Amino acid sequence: MTALPVRRPVAPRPQIPPTRRPQLRLVGPPRHARRYLALMIFVAVPGVFGSVALNALAAEQSFAHRELVREVDTLNLRVDGLTVSVARLEAPDRIRRHAERRLGMVPAEQPAFLALQPTRASSHVASRPPDTGG
Predict the structure, then answer these.
(1) Angle at Cα 40 formed by Cα 36 and Cα 43, nearest 5°?
(2) Which of 33, 72, 80, 123 could form a disulfide with 29 if both were Cys (CB 3.0 to 4.6 A apart)?
(3) What does the domain layout of the chain look like in residue ranges?
């Protein structure tokens, strides 16, 4: 014996009465769209102008920075030159030559020391230091 397939009863489809197509009409944009557009313009326009203004200020500061760096470099070169000049002027050989030629000074035969106390002798003659050969 073979089993026969069970058939379910099919429910009848509901009858939809024929209706008229609704009449279509053009509707404007919703009111909140205008508010959204106004808000976007209110935010975007100052943002763009602010961005451009900040960019211009940054460029201006960049030029000022570059000029200051050049000035600092120039002043550093001048300081280096003055340092070299001071080092030359402080050289002991130069000071000795200047004292001999322009001031008429001569090397001391025996060094003397000046005493700052008035009760003692005003100067003492010391023995000459041994010659080191230099």
Answers:
(1) 135
(2) 33
(3) 33-105
Return d(Cα 11, Cα 7) in angstroms, integer. Answer: 12
Q: What confidence tens digit (pLDDT) does each residue in 92-120 have?
A: 999 999 999 999 998 888 888 887 876 65
Determine the residue type at 78.
Answer: R
Contact assessment for residue 115 and residue 124, using Cβ atoms and an 8 Å cutoff: yes
CA angle 109–115–119, rounded 5-degree value: 135
Q: Measuring CA to CA, how many Å separate 33 from each of 26, 28, 29, 133? A: 16, 10, 7, 103
The token pair at 115 is 């005493």
CA distance 131 to 134: 8
pLDDT of 14: 75
Q: How far apart are CA 64 and CA 56, in angstroms?
A: 12
